[in-house]
């Protein structure tokens, strides 16, 4: 899959394809329906499949104080797109100039640059200044701009429409099972392993330390069973999101103990998928009590990893 972020670098080979339009934060089951439809159309008609989304959330420009925290790292979003068979991901920056575009000017720009023959969107898709253009607008205007538009049906879970807003709510509240169900894949963290204080190694549980972004929605403090991908290899693990209250450390961090792994992870980028909450963060009366609980966490994490080993891995 090719990734392009500059309008000027779009080439003729991406024109007349099937294009999915949307914000696509989290690539939840509703997003997957839209993207899959574009990929399906592209294969049926022998044209390229393209996803057009912005690298930043439009609200970060239109109303910065109301901009949502992102669900997944941009690189994770690309992993999902590639797995789904997308040929090209176009992710330019949403700017004040973009925000000021009238919806017909946006359609003109779309025709001049990508000239899609088919466009797939979700029912809540909007575009143009003040969101004046809608999914229905695309259907009505499509013929004038050389494409056929299809509005994909929303996906529901327990009579509630799946949305990024709902998933953020689940993640904040620690409802991991619900978040994973709505996403259709586990909540993830992705980043470069950094040097920590090596306390885990001294306790017999070496950990890979990842920085928690203040721009991403985070699960509550606690210990989680996780799946870890390192250089394409998949391992089980137990991850702690918290501040290590037993040692009086207050700065939140993500520490991942990777099962059955030995090696140097510093500087490597790893993918951590959260499978199940094991327990909330707690302060232990002694280091011995902490170690005893960590052994229990490790055993439970191993069991959960084995049960979910065959589910989706990016």
From TrEMBL:
Protein's job: Catalyzes the phosphorylation of riboflavin to FMN followed by the adenylation of FMN to FAD.
Start and end residues of each Riboflavin kinase domain: 182-306
Origin: domain of life: Bacteria
One matching Pfam family: Flavokinase
Keywords: ATP-binding, FAD, Flavoprotein, FMN, Kinase, Multifunctional enzyme, Nucleotide-binding, Nucleotidyltransferase, Transferase
Reactions accelerated catalytically: FMN + ATP + H(+) = FAD + diphosphate; riboflavin + ATP = FMN + ADP + H(+)
Species this protein is from: Schwartzia succinivorans DSM 10502
Keyword ATP-binding: yes
InterPro entries: FAD_synthase, Riboflavin_kinase, Riboflavin_kinase_bac, Riboflavin_kinase_bac/euk, Riboflavin_kinase_dom_sf, Rossmann-like_a/b/a_fold
Coiled coil: none
Gene3D superfamilies referenced in this protein's UniProt entry, alphabetically: HUPs, Riboflavin kinase-like
Record-annotated membrane-spanning stretches: none
GO biological process, one term: riboflavin biosynthetic process
NCBIfam families associated with the record: PRK05627.1-3 (NF004160), ribF (TIGR00083)
Sequence similarity: Belongs to the ribF family.
Signal peptide: none
GO molecular function: ATP binding; FMN adenylyltransferase activity; riboflavin kinase activity
Pathway: Cofactor biosynthesis; FMN biosynthesis; FMN from riboflavin (ATP route): step 1/1; Cofactor biosynthesis; FAD biosynthesis; FAD from FMN: step 1/1
E.C. no: 2.7.1.26, 2.7.7.2
Name the record gives this protein: Riboflavin biosynthesis protein
EC top class, as a word: transferase
């Amino acid at each position: 899959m090719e990734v392009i972020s500059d309008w000027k670098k779009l080439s003729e080979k991406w024109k007349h394809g099937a294009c999915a339009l949307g914000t696509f934060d989290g690539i939840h089951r509703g997003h997957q329906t839209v993207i899959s439809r574009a990929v399906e159309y592209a294969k049926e008609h022998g044209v390229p499949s393209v996803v057009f989304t912005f690298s930043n959330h439009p609200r970060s420009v239109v109303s910065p104080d109301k901009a949502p925290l992102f669900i997944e790292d941009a690189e994770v979003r690309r992993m999902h797109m590639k797995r789904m068979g997308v040929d090209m991901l176009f992710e330019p920056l949403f700017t004040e100039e973009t925000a000021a575009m009238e919806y017909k000017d946006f359609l003109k720009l779309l025709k001049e640059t990508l000239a899609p023959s088919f466009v797939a969107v979700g029912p809540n898709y909007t575009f143009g200044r003040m969101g004046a253009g809608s999914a229905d607008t695309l259907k009505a205007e499509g013929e004038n701009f050389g494409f056929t538009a299809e509005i994909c049906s929303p996906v529901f879970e327990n009579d509630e429409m799946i949305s990024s807003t709902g998933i953020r709510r689940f993640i904040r509240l620690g409802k991991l099972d619900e978040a994973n169900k709505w996403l259709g894949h586990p909540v993830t963290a992705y980043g470069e392993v950094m040097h920590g204080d090596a306390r885990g190694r001294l306790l017999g549980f070496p950990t890979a330390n990842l920085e928690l972004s203040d721009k991403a929605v985070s699960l509550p403090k606690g210990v989680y069973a996780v799946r870890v991908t390192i250089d394409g290899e998949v391992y089980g693990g137990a991850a702690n999101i918290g501040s290590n209250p037993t040692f009086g450390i207050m700065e939140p961090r993500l520490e991942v103990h990777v099962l059955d792994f030995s090696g140097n992870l510093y500087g490597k980028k790893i993918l951590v998928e959260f499978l199940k909450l094991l327990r909330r963060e707690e302060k232990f009366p002694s280091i011995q009590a902490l170690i005893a609980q960590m052994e229990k966490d490790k055993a439970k994490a191993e069991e959960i990893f084995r049960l979910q080993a065959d589910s989706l891995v990016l």
